[in-house]
Amino acid sequence: MFLLITLTAPCRASEDPYLSELIAKAQQRELYRNRNWQILLHYKPSFMGVTSLIDDPGFFLSGNGKHDPEAELVATLKAFFQPGPENDEHPRCRFVARYAWLRQELGIDEARLPALSCNEFQHALDKVQPGSAVLIFPTTHVNSPASMLGHTLISIQGPYKSKLLAYAVNYSAITDETNGLAYAIKGILGVYRGYFSILPYYEKLREYSDLQRRDVWEYDLNLTEEETRRMFLHIWELRDIYSDYFFFDENCSYNLLFLLETARPELDLTGPCRPWVIPIDTVRIIRESGLVKEAFYRPSKATRISHIASQMSDAEQKAAVEVIAGETAPEDLTKKNLTRDGEIRILDLAAETIEFRYFEKELTREEYQRRYLALLNARSRLGQTDAAYTEIPAPFRPDLGHGSNRLSVGAGFYKKEFFQQVSIRPAYHNLLDADQGYLAGSQIDFGNLVLRYYPRAGKSELHALDLINIFSISPRDRFFKPKSWKVDTGFFQTTFSDGSDHLAYRLNSGRGFAYKRMGGLFYSMLEADLLVSGRFRHHYALGLGGSAGWLKNMTESWKVYLRASKFYYELGDDHQNLEGSLGQSFRITADNAITLELSRHKEFGNYYSEAVLNWNYYW
Q1: Cα-flanking dihedrals φ and ψ of residue 6, to 5°?
Q2: How confident is the model at residue 254 (pLDDT cuts 50, 70, 90)?
Q3: Is residue 614 within 8 Å of residue 594, measured between CB atoms?
């Protein structure tokens, strides 16, 4: 006892009585259980009680702060009273949101704290001048693995009228990985670290709309100036602080919700989240919470180019291609017997395309400047005109489209046997789903599970499990030459040489081209297909083949998808596969649809048919 008193007495003697009073008051009121404190430290329930989703040790002032809210609160109060480090590195300057909240809750007398100046923070606050906030949603870009599901960030608006002069708050994984499959695997496993960053909004807008061909939606939020300032204080605390980035849950979309909860703590945005969080779901959560005032659409440069081209005649498009290729000088357009408005459209489209190709690094700076100025000079001689053709109508709002989760209940016939079927898909959209709010010709299915029951045989089976099924149908035209591609891996029931059905693993990948034909999208692909199963004599079958399809929205609610494929398996179990199918979907409401799929198959020389009718519910 004597030794214990001896060891602890100096600590008690050196502790400021006012600090002891504040700690006792905070513990008596159990402020560490307060929702505001839980939000500021990103605490969530866990097997250990609570755990912060922040993984950087530099975010905590207590050695056990990641798991102990009370210890972190006590350590924070003590840190506020320490004499050093000086000024900007002091915990009161580093953790300004914590300090602002505790000062208000405990009525802290600043005159009894060590004097200091948070010059760096004050400079940032004066520069940003947070007054309001906008949720930014760059839409999907299927040809980029890092952006296939879209993205979300927040723009902090200052006193300027133009949104371009605001600052963007972005959370993203830090990586230089260029392999799409490796990026996806590492992102799922949480290998990357995610950081918040603040930079001018116009820089992010250029990155998304000009460099990545992604349209952007801006959702004005009804946060007050005080709430926006409170959010900015927390953003300041998170600078240079990392969290392990997980592709499906602790991602850009989920972490942004903490910022909004900091602004308005009575909101519970992170609690109702599913085990997986997709950017568009975050937009819906924020809209349903009542935070959204209005939504505005910003088309990408690629969208603007395509829109102008759609207003042009065939002759005008051909002339534009010649100007872009440098085969025709801008001033020589007058020799082509074009109308004045036609020349204007050609020059406008050429200028947009030359700028786009410079952003894509297809042109040097010198070549871009020379050609761009020549186009502007020729355009200026034509004077003003009706610019209505450049006005792009806003498409269907992404947050008003169908939910990314889908439950399907249905029935059908397979090889003349009646079956009942139920399937569930966590994410996100496939080719037969309604396009409203989604990118036409895109398919991203994760974890689609299909179960079947055959009443006559009394048999239940796992019919299919799509681990990943991505399909990008990107139409080509005179101005853009994208490649279409697909990758599909998972388990499904297939027919073997003896006519029986068993589960097999499949890995399929293909590349090809797509075009707009007959009012829809037509594609053709060369594919490689690998099947693995102990039911094969050689345990596998590997082959090459191809597929072709035509996808068209007959009306706003009715979609048709025709598809045919053939594969020649030359390695492993030698055989051929031939398949043709017709799929139709009928949209009833945004979250309800009916699909009918008919198909005819030939496997190991055996023919069979299948018909499935499903009711789909999205949420």
Answers
A1: -65, -40
A2: confident
A3: yes
